[in-house]
Amino acid sequence: MQTLKTAIFTTGMVAALLAAPALQARPGWGSPWGGYGSGWGGGWNDPLMGGPAGPPMSSSRSKDSREGRVEVSRFVAQGPEAADLGHGAVAVQSDSGEGQWVPGAQRAAYEAAIVEALVGAGYDTQHKDEGGGQVAELKISRQVLTPAEEKRNPVSGTAAMGVSNRGSAYGLAVNVDLSKPRSALIGTRLDTRIVDKASGKVLWEGYATIATREGDDDWPDYRIAGKLAAALFDGFPKADAVGTDAPKG
Questions:
Q1: What is the phi/psi pair of residue 7, to 5°?
Q2: Residue 247 preceded by cis peptide, ω within 30
Q3: What are 187-243's pLDDT values in tens digits?
Q4: Both ends of the chain: CA-CA distance in Å?
Q5: Which residues, other chains included, contact 67 with Cβ-Cβ below 8 Å and sequence gap of 6+?
Q6: Cβ–Cβ under 8 Å, residues 167 and 193
Q7: pLDDT tens per residue, range 62-111
């Protein structure tokens, strides 16, 4: 009986092999099916072989090149008064007007950063010079460089249907992006000019800007203020020379 069963099984296998079409040799990595990179339906890139149903989808987002970068412009007047830059008493004033000015406690962080920078430049910020001295006027403004991103579906993908003489298959490529929408990119600008109190002449002025994400814990106001003030007064009073009639606006 065991011999009869074996004979029947062997006969069935032979019949199946004879009925199947002959396989043609295909290029590939050691496989008649085309192996790695080619073969049946294109190998890895064919959804019938379990490959991706569409082009690769990436959830990574590159950082905006403007984030955290500081840009500075500075100008110094020519004349005898400019020789007093970095010496004597200086008072700090900031505009509290409407518009793009940073209000209240936020503005205080910028005032403190400017005071620290002036002390580092050689000024006396503790005492007033009733007979003259200099005044450092500062302005802080902001503008939206890139609006905040809208909320989006965290799951997306593409699908493909493939048919060949060996059957059909359905492929699905799913992209999951769990990153949060980016907040607005904000440009902060710190303008400072140093004026001779007696004559009202602008001796030195400049501005520094930086772009940061709104609400970013890595960029609180005091850090932005310190970064801008330090860059603005780096090498003070070094600046591009202008005529004796320096701009006052």
A1: -65, -40
A2: no
A3: 999 999 999 998 899 999 999 999 999 989 999 999 999 999 999 999 999 888 764
A4: 110
A5: 185, 211, 212, 213
A6: no
A7: 788 889 999 999 999 988 888 999 999 999 988 755 545 566 778 899 99
